[in-house]
Amino acid sequence: MTARIPGNDYGVLEPPAPGTWRPRMAVSVVIPARGGQDRLDLTLAALAAQTYPAHLLEVVVVDDGSVPPLRVPGIAPERTRIVRSPQGRRGIASAMETGTAAADGEVIHRMDADIVPYRDHVEAHMRWHHLADYLVVLGRLRFTAAAGPLPAPAQVSGVVADGDAHGLFAEDPEHGHDWIDELVAAHRGLRDAPSPLLHRVHVGATVSSPAALLKEAGGLDTSLVLGEDTELGYRLTQTGAVFVPDAEAVCWHLGTTTAMRRPAEVRRHNGPFIADRVPYRRNLRSDPGRQWLVPYVEVVVDAADASFEDVRASVDGALASTLSDVSVVLTGPWALLDARPPGEEGRTPLDDPLLDLRLVRGQYAGDGRVRLAERVPATSFPAPFRLTCPPGWVPGAESLAMLVEQADGDDEGLLLVALDENETGVVTARLERTSAVARALRVAAEGESLDDVIADLYGATWLDAETWRFRPASRAYPAWASARNREAVRWRAEAERHGREAERARQRVAALKAELRELRAQAAKGDRAAARWKEKAEQRRLEAVALRRERDRSLLRRAARRLRGLAEGGR
């Protein structure tokens, strides 16, 4: 039975210590490379000294247009080969696609061509893959200082084999993946990390995953030239993968990365491409009303046995959500609309038994946000959420945003909104987390309730329709919908008007502050002048006192002389 891991809490697994177990799975280390033969030689020398059994380890180096072509050096694993990228295709993603297609291993261990792994690096990765078939294992990188010549491959191989790789290089004190270390530490080694965070730590320098899982996720996006690892990490999350950062899977990275040397330029370049493909990056999707390649929420409405009016009410309610990156899938027997059963040729359009379906298709055929499908897959991959809404029930403008916020608050896998009750049971709207459904499908036993498994691994909560603003079509439609564009324009105009008023108010406040500063300056100037006059007045007062005292002394002296004169005259 497949191991059942709740959320990302891989702590339920007990990996063996390196050297204490017997491996049985084959691994292919795939290394995309362009030039840099001297560094590749060190990577292969270190791989030749690994503790993982040689007969289970192959290395596929993908030469991505090197001039001169790359070669297998004298010190390399026994099963090392070089394949070349197809003519006209360049980039890490394309090289990895070529290498993965050529690889034989059950596990694909992606490694950069400037990595020097410690002796048990591959074994540390592989011990996890023997425990579950949906793990993504991340190694730990130490970055070397740039100064000094590289050691010889024979030296690297010997030092790694002796278990002394930690002393091969001087560590760069100014560069490292501190941000990854902080995320890992903040979430108990990612064990309690929320689903939207996991893809951020998917760094391709040394990462491994089962070949089947990588294929299920679609492999690297070959249309990307940067940020391809992050985007793949996102899609791996949606397959239900568990991310395991192994602190014992250590390796050296020779020098720094482009993202370290030119971070602002890399962020600027990657922004549009990541925004289009990774809905979790909410800060990159701040533009209102945009359509994106991958929606945040896929809304499913079944039109098979519903009236045109009920379907329209539900669809329009979803599309008018304040959460703008939404797509809608309408399920139904659409192929029947293009078939002409015998005897139908003479029937008038108004008597068409498929009239409601035909009206629905006519209503939304030209809307790029709406797709018609006979059925939907088990999950909404690659979208992170799916809302299944019964036709005739209308989500409020804030409903989708509120539900997603609720789900992300506790990383819940399933939210069930109780809408009504009829003879068949409770009518519900369901918000499903794609990764939770994918995980449940992977580990559920035969005959086991999928909802129970989701609840066990991620949590499930029942909600009420009123609080979460779902209303039946009779109460919600068409009054608000018929004027939704005019309402949007009106509210936008109101917002702009208030914005202009706020700007005028800010300017007035700034002017008042400037005036206040001037008055304070003048007051301060006046205070200084007053202080000077006060000082002068005090000086004059002291001078007057001194003069009075001197005058008084003069009078006393004259009086004394007169008295002495009188006294002398009397003798």
From TrEMBL:
This is Glycosyltransferase. Residues 28-142 form the Glycosyltransferase 2-like domain. SUPFAM superfamilies: Nucleotide-diphospho-sugar transferases. CDD domains: Glyco_tranf_GTA_type. Its EC number is 2.4.-.-. It is an enzyme of class 2 (transferase). The keyword Glycosyltransferase applies. The keyword Signal does not apply. Residues 488-550 form a coiled coil. Gene3D superfamilies: Spore Coat Polysaccharide Biosynthesis Protein SpsA, Chain A. InterPro entries: Glyco_trans_2-like, Glycosyltransf_2, Nucleotide-diphossugar_trans. GO terms for molecular function: glycosyltransferase activity. Keywords: Coiled coil, Glycosyltransferase, Transferase. It comes from the Bacteria. It comes from Streptosporangium jomthongense.
